[in-house]
Amino acid sequence: MKKLLVHMRGYWRESILGPLFKLLEAVFELFVPLVVAAVIDRGIRGGDRRYVLLMCLVLVALGVVGLLSSVTAQYFAAKAAAGFAKKVKSILFGHVQSLSFSEIDTLGTSTIITRLTNDMNQIQNGVNLFLRLVMRSPFVVFGAMVMAFTIDARAAVIFVVVIPILSVVVFSVMLTCIPLYKKIQGRLDKVLGLIKENLSGVRVIRAFRMEANETGEFDRRNEALTRMQKRAGRFSALMNPATFIVINIAIICLIRSGALRVDAGALSQGQVVALYNLMSQILVELIKMATLIITMTKAVACGNRVQDVLELRSSQIWPDVSPEEAIGDLAVEFRGVSLRYQNAGGNALSGIDFAAKKGQTIGVIGGTGSGKSSLVHMIPRFYDAYGGEVLVNGVNVKDYPQKELRAKVGIVPQKAVLFGGTLRENMRWGDPNATDEEIYEALTTAQAKEVADAKGGLDFVIGQGGKNLSGGQRQRFTIARALVKKPEILILDDSSSALDFATDAALRRAVKAMGGRTTVFVVSQRASSVQYADRIIVLDDGEIAGIGTAEELLQTCEVYKEIHESQFKKEGAASDAGQKKAEKN
Question: What mean pLDDT comes out for the span 371-384?
Fold first, then answer.
């Protein structure tokens, strides 16, 4: 948390003025009991209405000035807290964007969201309350004790005894609650993770009629969180009755002692009332102090969690200088590459060796979990090789600056993701300067122009995540977005799974007919999607089972032969029909 405070730079003025104005309010508040004592002793006892009226105006003036001081302090404190939180959120979000896929996978999406939302709100509230009360509450407590000594030293001894007792009560409750609040934050992570999982998978949940199960799981986690919060709440609830018992006993002692001294003529009635008011102020401020400490405890715990993320360094180091690319026909080359994910027991890929020439279409096929996506994700360096080298244009991908490498590669992920906004805005993710003609060209190649025209053109507003589109429409638009970029290497990671055979065949022909020397990687579980590729890489349990054309692999690779035969018995007729239809078009 201490390291986060460096981001308060730029708000030092507000951080100083906020507590100072709150301190000024406390000074005016401490004068109120003395004015009330004067009203009783001089005005009411002497029957001087004019003096009473004058003192009432003084009280109003103290109240107005105190209110103005409080509002000003709140303004500066809120400005500093909100500005600090804004700055830390921006830094945290930017840092998360800089992390590699490995770190993001380890952290988890729900954890990152919690850090950016709930934890940051707790930090902001903590900073706000700290700036308002850090000087005010201690000043009022000790100021009230000093004021009591100026009124009557013997009566002030009660204050000297009560303040430590109240402090022990308050801090005992606080120290008990601190560990509980830390556990509550951990339980909250689990609840938020389940909520995110359910919202993102709501269609699957309803399709399998698992609403009751998921509701039950949410109830169990929410109940665990509630139990922890109730436990912390019960301890927190002890604070008010315990402090009121102590303070009321002190008030009884104060009134008894004051009454005896009034009878003896050593104190006036107004002075006893002033002492009573000062005791009440101490009670209020100690409770505020306890609230501040508990809030700060939450803020510090959340700040440490945010700091943990900020201190997490990416496992990838990107150079700043562009490398000199080798002259030749090779676009992508894997040399003895292996890949192991963090905290994994073994390699996801092992011994991967192949080369792809510029302009070639490379098919990647294999069973579920064979490592197809893992292989192509190493080309844009989403993951680093555990062993071996991945080369693009004859240069190790680790030697490219991030922007330059990613500019060469266009990727269409397995899950088609579109963002809220117009179709034009989504297409320009590939190239911010793309013209409408270039966008329509990409849409035509992706077999999505008819869809775009039917939806109203490039001004069609896409819902968040593309929820107002079908699965096939989303896939075609994401392919078009990658094509707008005009990449040297195009990766289609199982991006036609939702397309019918005719559209899939037409897409393959359009991509193959693209001008230039674009190297295309087609990842699919369909043999029909890769059978016309220049070379096909067959993966089996993270290793290459065969490389060659479809005809060669049918003769030499048992894995490919099994995939081909199992699919073409069912899909052959449909695929042939789709191919013929595409050729007619």
Answer: 92
Q: What are the residues facing 422 on neighbouring strands?
A: 461
Scored b (16 or more CB within 10 A) or e, 43-76 reads bbeeeeeeebeebeeeeeebeeebeebbebbbeb
pLDDT band at 1 (very low <50, low <70, confident <90, very high): low
- Rounded Cα distance between 190 and 212, Å, is 19
In the chain, CATH 3.40.50.300 sits at 330-584
Q: Indicate where the chain has its CATH 1.20.1560.10 domain(s).
A: 2-310
Please choose, from the candidates 147, 538, 561, 501, the residue with its C-alpha nearest in 3D space to the C-alpha of residue 352: 538
Distance CA 480, CA 474 (A): 10
Backbone angles phi, psi at 409, to 5 degrees: -115, 130
The structure tokens listed for 142 are 């000790």
Tell me, what amino acid is at 24?
L
Specify the pLDDT at position 437.
92
Q: Cβ of 264: how many Cβ atoms within 10 Å?
A: 8
pLDDT at 398 over 90: yes
Paired sense of beta strands 361-366 and 535-540, if any? parallel
Per CATH, is 330-584 categorized as 3.40.50.300? yes
Amino acid of residue 148: A
Residue labelled with tokens 């906004």 = 421
Global pTM?
A: 0.74
**3-state DSSP assignment of residue 546:** strand
Confidence tier at 515 by pLDDT (50, 70, 90): low
- What whole-number distance in Å separates Cα of residue 412 and Cα of residue 421? 19
Taking the C-alpha atoms of residue 174 and residue 232, their distance in angstroms, rounded to an integer, is 10
Using left for φ > 0, alpha for ψ between -120 and 50, and beta otherwise, residue 265 falls in left
Decide if pLDDT at 575 tops 50: no
Helices (H), 311-350: none
The four Cα atoms 228, 234, 239, 244 give a dihedral, to 10 degrees, of 170
**What type of residue is 529?**
S
Return d(Cα 251, Cα 282) in angstroms, integer. 12
Decide if 375 contacts 349 (C-beta within 8 A): yes
SS (H, E, C) 491-511: EEECCCCCCCHHHHHHHHHHH
State how beta strands 409-412 and 489-493 pair.
parallel
Rounded Cα–Cα distance for residues 200 and 195 (Å): 9
For residue 352, list its beta bridge partners: 337
Distance, CA of 88 to CA of 5 (rounded, Å)? 9
Phi then psi for residue 58, to 5 deg, are -60, -40
Q: What is the third-level CATH fold of 2-310?
A: ABC transporter transmembrane region fold (1.20.1560)
d(CA 291, CA 242): 15
- CA 92 to CA 307: how far, in whole Å? 9
Range of weakest confidence among 141-155, 403-417, 528-542: 141-155
Cβ proximity of 357 and 330 under 8 Å: yes
pLDDT tens per residue, range 157-214: 888 888 888 778 877 877 787 778 778 877 887 887 788 788 878 888 998 888 999 9
* pLDDT single digits (tens) 27-62: 888 888 888 888 888 888 778 888 889 989 999 999
